[in-house]
Amino acid sequence: MTSTFTRWPVRLASLLACLLFWHLAASSKLNLGLFTFTYVPTPKAVLDAAWQLLTSSSLLAHLTSSLSRVFSGYLVAAVLGVSLGLVIGRSKWAEDTLLPPLEVLRPIPAVAWIPLAILMFPSSELSMVFITFTGALFPILLNTVHGVEAVDPRLVASARSLGAGRYAILREVILPGALPSIVTGLAIGMGTSWFCLVTAEMIAGQFGIGYYTWESYTLQNYPDIIVGMLLIGVLGMGSSALVKRLGALATPWYRLRRGA
């Protein structure tokens, strides 16, 4: 408990130091050669833009649009990623047939999926959900595979010697053993879903935090750009923290082992 209280002041001081540097650099239009703060708005300008967005009627529409797109794509990616990860991690045949094409697709950035998403889906809304889905799928899938493969084979052999069948081993040994890694993948996948949001909402649409950020860029409303960026960061951090918290509740044995 004491260590938790002593760490928070350090974290707060770190944030305040970053804000102070931002204020001084933007106010003095600091030019370091490789990059410049000449056109970077000050924290006060960003705060004014944030207040303007907060008091506008469009904020709720932006939030609901982005949240629905992110969570729709994320939930599909979570179900598919965990399911495929369990199959690939437990079956050499599935690893040889499914993993190579997935590994080819994994490095493709979200922006490169835009033309194909437009061609594949009848509506722009589904196209945007698909982009967030691709962002979340691969971290969840690979962490699930690694978690399954990291389960001690001796535990599987012991369960089998006691008469456990394939599904009992999966339920009682593989899933509990792989769950911490799965939770890590789910948390990373949530963050990458938000990361892909701006790319997704570049396709089409009238509302969404990513759309708001991109529109601010095209209109050269620099404070609004940073407001959109910070809002995506806060929402992504909060949703990832929620996934981690739910994962910690689902794996109490893992927390006890780490504490030991």
UniProtKB/TrEMBL annotation:
Keyword Transmembrane helix: yes or no?
A: yes
Q: Which keywords label this protein?
A: Cell membrane, Membrane, Transmembrane, Transmembrane helix, Transport
Q: Where is the ABC transmembrane type-1 domain?
A: 63-243
Q: Where in the cell is it found?
A: Cell membrane
Q: What InterPro entries has UniProt attached to this entry?
A: MetI-like (IPR000515), MetI-like_sf (IPR035906)
Membrane topology reported for the UniProt record: Multi-pass membrane protein
Q: Which residues cross the membrane?
A: 70-89, 104-121, 128-148, 168-187, 225-243
Top-rank taxon, per record? Bacteria
A family per Pfam: BPD_transp_1
PANTHER family annotated for this entry?
Answer: ABC TRANSPORTER PERMEASE PROTEIN MJ0413-RELATED, ALKANE SULFONATE ABC TRANSPORTER-RELATED, MEMBRANE SUBUNIT
What family, per the record?
Belongs to the binding-protein-dependent transport system permease family.
According to UniProt, the name of this protein is ABC transporter permease
Which organism is this entry from? Answer: Pseudomonas urmiensis
